[in-house]
């Protein structure tokens, strides 16, 4: 068994509505308005933000696209893009689980939709990113989940047959895509449930 972790929502907090409430308080001033602006800015991770995730747009270019498309001011769009790294904070119970998995000798990998500037920040800031044997950030390969191509690329890079890989992700379409690629996949909701499901798959937790 080789484990593949998503990052946002699994190892790092990702709460876009809270981000926009903080950065755009005059626009995202309650749950309803925040949900509206989440849709406008992130477009369900398609559109402009999806291209940023894939490395097809730079940070400056996605700011310009947001200004043209949404009516946000330049400073507002820039503030959103600049705020993301500081709000990608570790989810400590998952980091603790990762440490136990590492200590027990389970091979660890990652597959994350992440623009390259944010990937650079995470690598610089959080030593546990170095615990993984290998990984793929979408912004560095110009592909993103749930595209089948990124799962094929990941299996190749990780030197694994699809059936060896167990994927933990919080986004159901990515779970479906992983399973379609022949991987096993667990829908991540919290570290306690993930640990229970990994034990059901055969992880003993013993070093």
From TrEMBL:
Protein name: HAD family phosphatase
